[in-house]
Design goal:
single chain; mainly alpha
């Protein structure tokens, strides 16, 4: 999928295919975790280490269908939209 940018719109920080590859790699890392911790781990990694523009592009891609992403990556990324799940003061990997 190619996102189009109008004149004056900010250019992406990185190619979308690279963002999708990285998101799926994060998902691969967290795949063995139980579902709730897996989604939390993906969300925390994206929130902590990704540029906000990268997160925005990922969420736009998901809103457009997100076909190239693993379902658990989509679930974790969607948690970024609902920050009520956030643990105040902690953004690292899921705690046991």
């Amino acid at each position: 999928m190619t996102l189009s940018y109008s004149q004056g719109a900010a250019m992406p920080v990185m190619a979308l295919d690279r963002i999708l590859l990285m998101a799926n790699q994060i998902g691969d890392f967290f795949a063995p975790y139980p579902p709730e911790r897996r989604a939390e781990g993906i969300r925390n990694h994206l929130r902590t280490y990704w540029d906000p523009r990268m997160r925005d592009e990922l969420l736009q891609y998901i809103d457009a269908g997100g076909a190239a992403l693993a379902p658990h990556v989509v679930a974790g990324a969607k948690l970024l939209q609902d920050e009520s799940h956030a643990k105040p003061g902690y953004y690292g990997p899921p705690k046991a």
